[in-house]
Amino acid sequence: MRRYGKHTDEDDIRQRPNRKGNRPRTNIRPKHEEAVDGMVLTVDRGRLTCLVGDHVVMAMKARELGRKAAVVGDHVAIVGDLSGDKDTLARIVRIESRTSVLRRTADDDDPFERVVVANADQLAIVTALADPEPRPRLIDRCLVAAFAGGLKPILVMTKSDLASPDKILELYGALDIPYVVTSREELENGDAADRVREQLDGKITAFVGHSGVGKTTLVNALVPADRRRSTGHVNAVTGRGRHTTTSALALPLASEGGWVIDTPGVRSFGLHHVDPSQVIKAFPDLEPGTEGCPRACSHDEPECALDQWVADGHADPARLYSLRRLLSTRERREGD
Q1: Of 14, 17, 207, 217, which sits 20 to 30 A from 152 (CA to CA)?
Q2: For residues 163 and 184, what is the distance between their CA atoms, to the nearest angstrom?
């Protein structure tokens, strides 16, 4: 072993190179004052298509963002080549604060939440009245996710030529949710799109629904012809639709002043991430009545103060029933 004496100079000692480079670490991050604003339109294998001004730019996430991921609808700050030319790639260096988020988990036991859409104003929940049969539990779960994420829900019922909407309307009437009922013929001739568009103009609206309910067909009727997506069919044996939309995509409305975000068809909507206290905020007529509730009240137990609140005439009993049905949806499977 080589030994160094008291007269050894530091130049006599061989130093190991720093594998990560010799620059000292710092917590100071560049401010990127030259960054421009953009909106994420879609995400595909680490590449993000963004709208910058009036043109589209391909970008990737900057390393300094760490694990933080941008999703469709995010407002971001972008630097680099912003020409939008072929084979160019810009960098997203900042993700701005979100006004709303639509989240889901794979199932209720999955702690890993996925942000599907950011900054949407509304959530259009599309359900067929038949072929495939409506799934109220899935609708309930989408409503809970909308209320918890700060989105206004809209119920869109398709294929009314095959079944009546009365049962669905009775089930959700107490929630005062805007709704539109459409038939297959109306989807084909454009009448359905005209009535749905009345709820969408000037807003960013995410569309969600079970595969095969006509969600993408409706989106195609709302957007310019050159932006339309492929559609599928319902399997006659299983009653399930084929997933034709594989990634969320923001599309401008054919009329000015609004966006629709088409999301992949869902067969489950986990709510592991939802804080029940957020759901009550969507019931302003019931929320004041919770002041007398015990701590961590589930709002469906003997000590819940909402029963007395309703008994005193402050709110409709149907509203309390609807709240409790939505809150209990985490304990029920969607097929129950």
Answers
A1: 217
A2: 11
Taking the model in full, what pTM does it have?
0.80
- Whether residue 265 is annotated as binding a ligand: the answer is no
Structure tokens at 77: 């700050």
Residue 297 marked as a ligand binder: yes
Residue 20 assigned as binding residue: no
Q: Is 211 annotated as a binding residue?
A: yes
Q: What are phi and psi of 156, to 5 degrees?
A: -115, 115
Instruction: Tell me if the bond preceding 17 is cis, omega within 30° of 0.
Output: no
- Is 266 annotated as ligand-binding? no
The three-state secondary structure class of 68 is: coil
Is 217 within any annotated ligand binding site? Answer: yes
Q: How far apart are CA 310 and CA 188, in angstroms?
A: 45
Phi and psi (nearest 5°) for 265? Answer: -60, 140
32 labelled as ligand-binding?
A: no
- Amino acid, res. 75: H
Per-residue pLDDT at 241: 41
pLDDT in tens, 106-129: 666 666 778 899 999 999 999 999
> Which domains does the chain possess?
36-95 (2.40.50.140), 101-262 (3.40.50.300), 276-331 (1.10.40)
Task: Give the chain's residues under pLDDT 70.
Answer: 1-31, 106-111, 225-246, 256, 266-268, 273, 330-336
Q: Is 306 left (phi over 0), alpha (psi -120 to 50) or beta?
A: alpha
Q: Is 55 annotated as a binding residue?
A: no
Tell me: the pLDDT tens digits for 307-321?
A: 999 999 999 999 999
The predicted structure's pLDDT at residue 233: 43
Q: By C-alpha distance, which of 132, 100, 117, 143 is closest to 330?
A: 143
Residue that is written with structure tokens 């969408």 in the block: 200
CB 252 within 8 A of CB 258: yes
